[in-house]
Structures are given as C-alpha cells and as structure tokens.
Fold these 3 entries.
Entry 1:
Amino acid sequence: MAVDARALETRFHVARALAREAGELARRRFVDRSSFTVGFKGPHDYLTEVDGEVERLIATRLSRLFPEDGFVGEEGEARSADGGAPVWVVDPIDGTANFARGVPHFCVSIAAVVGREIEIGAIYDPMLDEMFAALRGAGGTLNDVAMRVSDTNDLKAAAIEVGWNVRWDADKYIGLVSRVVAAGAAAVRSGSGALGLAYVAAGRRDGYVENHMNAWDCLAAIALVREAGGYATDFLAGDGLRSGAAILACAPGVKDALIAAAAIEGLIL
C-alpha cells in the first residue's frame, strides 16, 4: 500500500498521543516503587514487567488504529506490515536501568519507518513532561516549539555522549571514550540512548556515539536529529532494523572531527 502525506501526518499525531499515554503509565509505576519487580535479561541488562506492560499498550492501540502496519518492539511484540505500510519501532522504556534504580531519566520512544526512511519520531520524557517529535520534512519540536542542534564547531568545546551496552566488550567502549576525550571533547553518559540523541536534537549535547545500538533505541531520535538540522549516520543501511548498527549523530559543525575521533568500526556514513 502507498502511504500518502496525510496518512503519515495522522500517524504522527497518534505517535505523540501514544508516547504521552504510555509515558504517563510508566511514570505512575515509577513513582510507586512497590508496583513492580526488577529482573535481568543479561549482565547489566535490566528488565521490569512495566516494560512489557507499556509495550503491549502501544502495540494494541496501533493494531486497532492501523491494522495494516507492522510493529517491532524491544520486548518481543511483532507484526509484519502489509505491502508498503509503515513499520512501527518501539522502545517502551529506554533507560530501564535508570527506571529500575529509581533514577528519573528514561523515556518512551516511538518511530515509524517506510522502507529505509524514518518518517516519524516521538520521544516522551514523562518525568520532565518533555515531548520531542519529528515528522520527516516538517522539522523537529520540543513541546511544540521548534528545536535546533547546537552551533558548536570545535570538539574542544563539545559535550559528546558515549553510549555503552553489554554487546560490546569493555575495551572497545573504553577505546571509544578515550578517543573522544583525546580529541578534546567532554564525554558524558546518561543511561538512555534515546534521550541522549534527543538532547543532541535539542542542542543540549553536541553529539552522540555508540559502537552498537538496536533500532528501537535510536530510530525515533535519529528522525529528531535530522529534522533539527543535525547529522546522523545511515543506521538503516544493511540490516540495521533487525540487527542494529553503530551510530553517530551530531551538530554539523563537529561532524568531520567527531567521525575522525570516534573511528567506529562499521560506521555507515
């Protein structure tokens, strides 16, 4: 099926509403610490039943509204798209380790992809009531106000978030941090890759780099960065949607220097 501009705009409004509804559910559960238990999918890979609850809410709403659309969720919800219908890519709680530990820095991330284009990105931080949203070609907003990436043009004045995950060994992570710091940038890590990238779009960070991310962690935020005037690598080239990929996103003024400093293996520019 062909997806026209009006259909995408409708889905954009739905994505924002759903991100807010799901975020409010996550916030209620976060505040009531006794309402959930904490487990692990692997070393340092936290899981709570709230992740699945939030994902089911989003998947159910989208299935009823757009039965032809596909769905890929971090917690296993999946549905194939009919023809050329959009595929929704969802992280119900990005920053689960923060959520589980009582740190109020996490978000709901919802993206819609058609082919290799990220058409929609919506990220909601329920603890700060911040809605980051982007529709391809229409710009990016933070709480309905247009946002832009920073105008930083020197890595020595830049704050770069360096993401970490258990899929890459410590040496590769430490090497990436070391190269970024050696280039003069301040390296930070917040525990939510989606929010880290959204902060690049909002000009709060000058860049974000990680050796490997899954699609649900970053697709919505990549849309934000691009629509806010920033640069992001071609995450969906190859098998990025299914298997993940390396990621670099930044303000255009530090693009070349950050790519050279990060020297990430397999980065698709």
Note: The chain has a mean pLDDT of 94.
Entry 2:
Amino acid sequence: MSEQKIAIIGGGVCGLGIGWRLAQAGCIVDVFDRGEAGHGASWAAAGMLAARAEAEPGEEALLALNVHAQEIWPEFARELEAVGNTSIGYRDEGTLIVAPTRDDAEQLQFTYDYQKSLGLDVEWLSAAQVRRMEPYLAPGMSGGVYSQNDHQVDNRSLSLVLKAAYLSAGGTLHEQTNVDRLVTEGGRVAGLRIGEALHEADTVVLAAGAWSRDIQGLPENVQPPVRPLKGQMMSVRMDPKFPLLRHVLWAPEGIYLVPRLDGRLIIGATVEEKDFDTHLTAGGILHLLRESWEVLPGIDELPIDEMWVGFRPTSRDDAPILGPTKLDGLIVATGHHRNGILLTPLTSNAVSHYILTRELSDEIKPFGQDRFHSNRN
C-alpha cells in the first residue's frame, strides 16, 4: 500500500484510469477537471480500438504500442465491468475497411500489403465477401480488408464506469474546477493552486488532453508539445433490431462509421487545424454525410441523433507523451491524438506503475517527452 498524495489534472479516461489504479494501490488521489469528468475528448470519441486499421508506414513504434494496448483491452474491460457491474459496450465483431472504386482498391491493396508485411492478421475480401458481411453497403464495391482484432467500446459508457470505479476505490473528484497553476518548490512539484488554496501533492500527473500545454506554472522545458486537432462528428439512429451496419466500417477520405448496440451509428470525423473552435460547420457535416452515404446509402432515411465537436490532443509526431519529465514529481500522460480510448488501459497501468515503483515500463520508454528535446539541433 502507498499513501502518496497524487494530484491529476484532467478527468478524461486516461486521468480517471490512472487515478483508479493509484487509488486501488492505496494512494491519496485527487482528480481535477475543468468541466465534467469524462466529457471532453473522451466523450467526443468514437471508441474504436483500431491499431491495425490505422497502421501507417513510419509509425511502427506507435503500432507496437497500440497493438499491445489492444491485447490488454479485453481483460481491462472485464475488470472494469465487474467493478462497476455495468457494461461498457465492448464489441469484438471486428473492423471492415472498404474500397468502393478500383482506385480505392489499389490504395487499399498498398495498405494491406504493408500490414501483412508487419505480420498483422488482416484478410483481403472480394466484393462479394464484403457484401456478405454487410449487405446494406452500396452496390459495386471493389473489395475490402477485414481486421478481426480491431474492436470497439462505447467510450461514453467507459467514461461513466471509470468515473464510478475511481470513486469507489476511494479517489476524490473535483469537477468544474480550474487549476490556476502548478506550484513548484526547491526544483520539484509541490502541488496545485486552486483559487487561493494550495493543494499539496507529492506527484502531479498532467493528463489534460489538448489543454495540457496551457497550465500556468509549467516551466518551458516541460511544456508538452500538444495542440488541439478539431473533429466534427455526428450520429444517426438505426433500428437496433435491424441495424444497417454491424461492423466498424472505414471508408475513403478518412470516414468511419461505428454502430452501437442501442441503434446509434457514429459517423466521424473531420480533421481541422482550428485551435479550440467549437462551431459545427455546414461543410464539415456535409463531408460526413456525403462520404458515409456513398458507402451506406440507407443512412439517408435515418433520423439525426446528435452532432458535436471534439479536440484530439495531438503531439508533434501524433504519438502519446507518457512518463516523467525534467521537473521532479511531474508526470505527463497526454498527446494521445486519435488513440486515447485505445491506449486507456496501457496508459493507466504504465503511468500508475511508474508512480508506484519509479520503474518505467519498456512499452512506454520510446514515448517520453525527452524525445522532442533530443531531436533539436
């Protein structure tokens, strides 16, 4: 057991997950969130666990991290659901990547060959096989790739259950609470300034997503190079008894469709360098609807359920920033880009393990903040 005093800035799924693990170990843990915990990027996400589908050349180290995270997800889901006695909507039907045209098929073949060269378990499908898996897809598909181990989870259920698990483990949650600044003393972390009060802490975890760089009092040499990457998303409502789609579906132009058991169909997402612009735009929604309708024409009859904007916390190399910093007592867990939900179990386990033991897990060693400083000329 440990009675370390830990303060975590950010109550998204990673902050809550780290807090849950530390509270389980007997630490005194306080999580601070500027809004409602779990309702930032964690709430806006689609919940895809798509390490293989998103594999790109040049990101082999990140792929290894993502695949490892994917492998521990089923056990993490079982443990969390047992603690919360509530489903988090984990589904393992797999992910389908489709090529509507011959040009799309040529591009997909290139990606498929790359994935196979890395030993990833993906399967090439003929047009007929694609239609058998998803009969409501548009006719004339040229082919597809099936990734049976790319799953999904209901990220909003995950957020709520993680919050409950953290609280039941003895953690304290401060919502609608701004952290005014990080307080240091003698070259190490001393705590957080909350209004006029000092909240003392032995260790501070910076897990504030796209807002991580903006915390006052961070020395320049530990400010994480994280920026917001805006994404517009929407959902439509299917009949849950007769869903138009059963698998997570990736279409050209970066569009994905994620079916939920309750009938919601998540459609995402735009990728925009617009800082913290919260506006939905006609062009953004048109893009989502047009590209998704091209592969699943039946959506034009479905009622619109919701539309929203989220902010991916994106680092310079699109990979997470995990582990200790040059400031003693300050730990970072941010910059997850598109993989925050996927990396939640790994981030929770690895960061909490470091805080408890001061041992850095091998899987996160390549993703420390020092990689950005060492690359400077």
Note: The chain is about 30% helix and 25% strand.
Entry 3:
Amino acid sequence: MSSPADLARMIDAARRVVVFTGAGISTESGIPDFRSPGGVWSKMQPIYFDDFRRDEAMRREAWRRVYDGVARWVGAEPNAGHHAVARLIAQGKASSVITQNVDNLHQDSGVPDDKVIELHGNASYIKCLECGLRHELEDFREPFTDRGEIPACRACGGLVKTATISFGQAMPEAQMARAEEETLACDLFLVLGSSLVVYPAAGFPLMARRNGARLAIVNRDPTEQDAIADLVLHAPIGEVMTAAVS
C-alpha cells in the first residue's frame, strides 16, 4: 500500500511535476463538490450556456445564485493541500497547476496567475461575452440585489457572466493548449482530488502516462484511472500533501 512517504520520494525524483486538481482539494476548504450526494448539482440544476444567452429569466436566476452565494464557489480560504501545491510551485519542482476548479484558491494560496491553468474558468470575477472586458463581482452586486438590474458590460453593453465555463460552453482553447503542452513536458503528473470522469479534462492524466510520465493520484474515492497509476492514495489531500511536501 502506498504512503505519503512514497509520494514524497516520487516528487523528489521528478524533474518536472504538473499538478492537476479537482473539486476534492477544495472540499477541505468547505466548498462542496459538484456530483456527489449533497454536491452542487444535487441541490440545483445547472444553467446551460445557450439558455443563459437566450433567456432573461435564466440570466436572472444565474445572477441570483452568484449573489446569494448558493453554490459557495468563492469566499473560502485555501487549505493545507493548496498551500502544499504552492510550495511545489515556489520551489520550482512543479511547473504549473492545471485545475478544474473555479474557486481561485490556488491563486489565493500564493500560486502566480500565470502558473494556474483554469480549464473551467473562474467564479471570482465577471467577463463580457462580447468584448472580453473583466468586471469584478462587486461592480454589479448593489444594482442587482437592490434594484434587480441584470448586469451588462459597462464598455459595450453586452452580456456578461462569471468567468466560468458553463455547461454547453466551448472549452477555452488557449488554456487547453497550455495544459497539453505542460502535460507533455512533465515527468510526474500528480492528480489531487479529481474523480477523473469529466472529459476532456480527464484526458490529461492519460496523455501524460502515454507520454512516459509517472502518474500519482490522491483522491478520497477510487477513480477509473487508478489501475494505470504508479501511486494511488485514498486519503485526505491536505494530510497527504503536508506530509509529502516539505
């Protein structure tokens, strides 16, 4: 059976680590995951991208969720797992963090923005769907909560939404390309807290393994890729990473 000490030795022996994170690393900060019982999608239905664009009622519901904080995707604090990942980046041992999460906790833990590759976007700010201008959540809180005004871009008047990738929305091409480049350059691909069922993101560990990298998976529950991994730990991520990363 593998141990945190085995993971530490694997990290020490690696030339270039890529860290891949899913919802499981952030549940230890109190952010619910998406698909398990009690997760986000067991409590409310996702709003599809086309519905958001087409239907004002769907946009209003989406903004209600943002400002009610019902999904609890933002506002938490990084945990021990995030801080251990930040140490790997600061030490130069890990080159990047590829994340499925939208909570900004890697950046909040000290990982530079340019080292975080967000496959599913970021819920901590707003982006115009027309001109791409960034807005902050607080820019529209009062107009929406006090007067019911649906946010619109202050530059072009276009539709805005949180900078997440919604169901039915195209994956971000630049981030996907960067993730592939990093995956093919690493010799250790470290998965933390991902069930590895959501594609195309879950294809990156397979890509790394096929390219000759070692694969380590730390996740609460078994994944479909455990059988091909060099190391598997079903244990709390903060505990494992604190023991494995000095």
Note: The chain has eleven helices and nine strands.
